[in-house]
Fold this sequence. Notes:
With 209 residues, the chain is an alpha+beta fold. It has seven helices and ten strands. The chain has one domain: Aminopeptidase (3-Layer(aba) Sandwich), CATH 3.40.630.
Amino acid sequence: xxxxxxxxxxxxxxxxxxxxxxxxxxxxxxxxxxxxxxxxxxxxxxxxxxxxxxxxxxxxxxxxxxxxxxxxxxxxxxxxxxxxxxxxxxxxxxxxxxxxxxxxxxxxxxxxxxxxxxxxxxxxxxxxxxxxxxxxxxxxxxxxxxxxxxxxxxxxxxxxxxxxxxxxxxxxxxxxxxxxxxxxxxxxxxxxxxxxxxxxxxxxxxxxx
Length: 209
């Protein structure tokens, strides 16, 4: 797969060392619970790329792929993604969830860039036709910043907290390949060229027109 570079991050397939870091991170409830896991994954389960997820549509084992987000200035892993089919392993609509374990470098700008460069990675490498995120938020008040990515709000759902079972309100956003291309094109950028090749700040890229 072709890695994609942003201005501060690059998205890539993880090295063996980074896979170990992802596995160790998934042993922590503050990491695995927001990713819809009710418990830490076993080693063999993780290595097969299979995670048992607890979501609004029901519980089950999902075939997942892992990606790493590295800081360009250090080459160190900053965060990681898990990606899987919305309705089965071969669905071209993919859920794309980000975790940031114990990072000392946090900012909204980095979070936004991770989503943009992560989306470009999946689309450029032909791994998805649509991306979806389920975002925790109060009923009737959808979080707004996913809309800045060009994503559409598809509606609300309720699903159990994977550990406590407490009902959680979630909002579903979707970004299609066409919408992603439109985001880049209206900013004068080529959606096939790494975002990091541009000097356009992430806040300008995602500014509402």
